[in-house]
């Protein structure tokens, strides 16, 4: 019989976050989707039959109070999925504004760090042998011109994953990452319609010749957070159709 866990998914109103929340809810877990967009957070929670919270992962005070509120209502968080991130800001090395890079790093690196730190503190205090799953990207290992700011942030997320994994292992807390290649979210579908030259160029880099579905990413997160991955920590699992092989 599967044990019900309290699962917090940040960026839960987005395409990947919504799929992740749906996967954990289907397993029977108590799922809380957190997003800084209040309306989208509540609409997503209502649509999935889970719980919604407003949360800015770059605001340390809000994180502390938000985690305390979740723990008071649902018990200790046993699974954290750090999905929230900034993907839409890009630019070449010669053109990207320093302020834009700062925004990317604040969200993708500092936000992931703060959520990991504050959640892990509560896991340790509660004696919870929990699991943390970060959303990384194969871009942290395979560069694409014009996307270096985002990719640098995801390389940092991979390093943060290993850092947290080795320090939290004595507490029984596992920390891993899912590293997708291009994912067929609503935003990506709108920007690169099927059959468009840009879409075909991306798919040409992927041995399996297609983008990942959001469900592919969610399945990896569910696996890494589950008992069948009980001896896996500190890894960044590519979900890329083989793109890193090219």
TrEMBL record:
Which residue positions does the secretion signal occupy?
none
Q: Does the keyword GTP-binding apply?
A: no
**Start and end residues of each Ketoreductase domain:** 5-181
Q: Which UniProt keywords apply?
A: NAD, Oxidoreductase
**Listed InterPro entries:** KR_dom (IPR057326), NAD(P)-bd_dom_sf (IPR036291), SDR_fam (IPR002347)
By its UniProt entry, which Gene3D superfamilies does this protein fall under?
A: NAD(P)-binding Rossmann-like Domain
Q: Which SMART domains match?
A: PKS_KR
CDD domains listed in its UniProt record: SDR_c
Q: Does the keyword NAD apply?
A: yes
Family, similarity comment: Belongs to the short-chain dehydrogenases/reductases (SDR) family.
> Which NCBIfam families does the annotation name?
PRK07231.1
This protein's name? 3-oxoacyl-ACP reductase FabG
The lineage, from the top, is: Bacteria, Bacillati, Actinomycetota, Actinomycetes, Kitasatosporales
